[in-house]
Specification:
Number of strands: 3
Order of helices and strands: EEEH
Largest sheet: 3 strands, antiparallel
Number of helices: 1
Oligomer: single chain
Strand content: 15-25%
Structural class: alpha+beta
Shape: elongated
Strand order of the largest sheet: 1-2-3
Helix content: 25-40%
């Protein structure tokens, strides 16, 4: 079974666009001409944020520290 993490999204319509935000990831947002496009854009934004934070964590390891996988199901 694949690991999964579900978060919430807020969607609003702004003219012809749908805009999606996540309270759990306030830095991320998505947009699209449909709700599905906006949600997929938000998913990609959140994945980029997580990737960036992982890279920051790797770059800032202290002496004797290591990173280990933590699966959320």
């Amino acid at each position: 079974m694949a690991n999964a993490f579900t978060f919430t999204a807020r969607i609003l319509r702004d003219g012809k666009w749908f805009v999606a935000f996540s309270p759990e990831f306030p830095e991320g947002n998505g947009q699209g001409l449909t709700e599905d496009e906006a949600l997929e854009s938000l998913r990609q934004s959140v994945l980029l944020l997580l990737e960036d934070r992982r890279e920051d964590a790797r770059a800032n390891l202290g002496i004797g520290e290591k990173l280990v996988p933590l699966a959320l199901a």
